[in-house]
Each structure stands twice: as C-alpha cells, then as structure tokens.
Amino acid sequence: MAAFGAAATTNTNPNKSFEVAQPPSDSVSSLCFSPKANYLVATSWDNQVRCWEIMQNGASLGSTPKASIAHDQPVLCSAWKDDGTTVFSGGCDKQAKMWPLSGNQPVTVAMHDEPIKEIAWIPEMNLLVTGSWDKTLKYWDTRQSNPVHTQQLPDRCYSFTVRHPLMVVGTADRNLIVFNLQNPQTEFKRITSPLKYQTRCVAAFPDQQGFLVGSIEGRVGVHHLDESQHAKNFTFKCHRDGNEIYSVNSLNFHPVHHTFATSGSDGAFNFWDKDSKQRLKAMARCSQPIPCSTFNNDGSIFAYAVCYDWSKGAENHNPATAKTNIFLHLPQESEVKSKPRGVQTRK
C-alpha cells in the first residue's frame, strides 16, 4: 500500500527488474560486481558495505545477503581485487578498508586528509589507488602503512576510471587529467572537459584509446586521446525531460559488446553505441534517481540503485516515502549489441 500522501502513480520498478533482498537503509553511493563470480557489493550513506550473492535460474534472478562491514561515516566508493577474494571501500571517514570475504576482519589500508571519493585496484601494478577531496591520488601497497606515491591534483577528485595503462581523473573545475600508469608520477595530458558543467563520472574506453565523461547537465562527451582521432569526438544530450535537465551519474561499458549504459537523476538508464552514435534502448523512468549502476563480469546482469541522490536538496527529501532499492536487469542482446548505422531499432 502506498504511504499516506504518496502519489499512486509513482513506480519504483517500471522495468520489472529483479529486486535485491534487504537493500541498504539509506541511499546507495556505489555498486560493483566481483570480477570472478556473481557477488554484488554496495556502499551506502548508512555507513555500510554490503555483499550479496546473485543467483541466476533461467530468466530469473535471486539474491542472498552474505555479509556486511561498517565504516564510521558514509561510504562513497568500492572496488574488488582482481581475484575476487577481497573488497576495498572508502568514504567520509577519510580511510579505505580492505575486507577479505573469507571472514577476516576489515583492515584500514589507506588514509587521506579529506573523504575518499574513488577507489580502484590495479592488478598490473599490484597497487590500490585512492582519489580524495584533499586534491590527491595515492597509490598503496596494502602491506605498507604509507603510500608508495602521492600525486597532486589540480582540485578535488570527483571521479576516476582505470584501464591499465590508461587512467583518467575528473576533478572540480572541469579538469580531466590523463595518466599513463607506466609512468604514474607524470601527467600524460590535462584536458578541460568538453562539457560546460561539473564532471560527474568518467569511463575509459575498453581499448584504452579514449574515455567518456558525463556531467550534471544531462550530457556525455566522447573523447579520443589521439589527436588524429579528434574528428570522432562528440557530445550528446541525455537524461532530459523537456526543460528538466538531470545529472548523468554513471557510465558503464558492456564487458563484451563495448556499448555502454548511462544512468541518471531522472530515474532512467539507457544503452548506447558510441561508434554508430545510436541509442540502442531507452528504459522506463523510475520514480527516484539512479545514483550508480554496473554490469557484472560477463555483461549478463546490469545492477542499478534507485534512491534519492539529494540532487534537488533537502526540501525534496521525504523520509516517510524515501526508499532505497537495488535492481537487477537482464539485458537482451538487442539492447546492448551494436548495430550497423541505419539499422532501425525499436526505442
């Protein structure tokens, strides 16, 4: 039954996705799947890092909560070790934790002077990298208490993406800093975002030849690093409804087809093909924003969170009706496989 005063028309799950059991009690800040199996981790503003096992049975999905750990303050980011044994998380308590899922207690492996906004494990370097609002990147050997390298950034880290040897960092003031991780102490290139508004998310191309950048102003930029490819650069609008413009919160490449998903504060997620400049599928809008999303390791499951993201401030937050959900969508091949230009797609 709808809460008293709630609009009967609001549909949290218009795409009939599968619901993850026992979701967080506050908004979700990040989602990531194990690279080895269907274990999903979510971090949230209730200070928790939670893990579920996702089971697929034909065309249906189930979920079982497996374990959780707590930070002292809201958690903002998460990443898996490449062997699927360990989860890393960072957040507003200015530290990163390493959580071995075999049952061992989490240990603090990284510290910053301000909240940690982004985290990634780089298997090729056997290092953890953290990006913070203290305007630094730090690289960590998890067996040592001090960083092996601290890289100054021009401003606060809002987002980063790593596909070795490419790393792209989006900071405040629309800076995009490109690193070649074979020489992480030196900036490879610094670019001003092709988008006129604040950077929200970045995603490296699977072939490491460029990256996507999404902004708070319902727009995505497609950027190639090679100067000779700059004619292929373009931007496009998305996550808009008439004069209402919403943030692009998440950019996720499909691990097999190399198409990508966008998720936004309008409550929608869409699938796109950058090479043919087509939208492959527009999904129905949920009644709340989608702050984060991710594919599993083979692209057969797309996970997305539906919850308030504070994009319209406290006055739009109603604790009585605010609910957090994590949903699982099974992408059809027609939604995520690229099509030659000119082939009509059903939107």
Automatic annotation (TrEMBL):
Cleaved signal peptide residues: none
Positions of region (Disordered): 1-21
Ranges of compositional bias, category Low complexity: 1-15
WD repeats: 21-54, 68-109, 109-150, 248-282
Pfam families: WD40 (PF00400)
Record-annotated membrane-spanning stretches: none
Coiled coil (residue ranges): none
Keywords for this protein: Repeat, WD repeat
InterPro entries in alphabetical order: WD40/YVTN_repeat-like_dom_sf (IPR015943), WD40_PAC1 (IPR020472), WD40_repeat_dom_sf (IPR036322), WD40_rpt (IPR001680)
PANTHER family for this protein: MRNA EXPORT FACTOR AND BUB3 (PTHR10971)
Protein name: Rae1-like protein
